[in-house]
Amino acid sequence: MRPKPLLHARDALDQLLLNHERVRTLLRQFDRLRWADPSAPGCRAELLDSLCDALTLLADMEEDFFYPAARRVLRDNPPAPAAFCDHARLRGLIAQLDEMPPGDLACNALVSDMDGCVSPCMDAAPSGLFVAVRLAGLDTRALGLQMALWRRDQLARTQTLKRVAHPEGSTWLAASGWPQPLCGG
Q1: 111 CB-side CA count, 13 A
Q2: In the chain, fewer beta carbons within 10 Å around the N or the C end?
Q3: What pTM was computed for the model?
Q4: CB within 8 A of 155, min separation 6: which ones?
């Protein structure tokens, strides 16, 4: 069964799982590109931008919607503090990565740190925090609707298509919602 497009996913947890999968896919693409062609700064730049955008979107959705709702329903039975991802550290890594040229080999270490920051939380959430909020009675459909509307507003604000020059001279149009890297992956 194919996953629902993000804007059509009705449940908050489904949306978060789709975001997690998007981040994992971008991390795998970066890892493959890093080993296959370390001297492809154009492809790396597109991929790093996509990864930073995806991680920022995920952090915003969790901080602004999911975590507050989870804390409200779990107030009598709080989960371990590790259930909530440390987005402050992640945002610091994203800021560092934004300042580096894509060919800088230090990017590899930063992406590795990002992976180490978010992967444990993404791995643990489905069997831990997600189960706990369902059992506590969180209305994940209503929360999902709020998240989808917020996401649609974010896309509308950035929907002005950007023209990005492709290395071969063609043009790539991308909406800022889920930018796709130019290079295959």
Answers
A1: 27
A2: N
A3: 0.77
A4: 7, 175, 176, 177
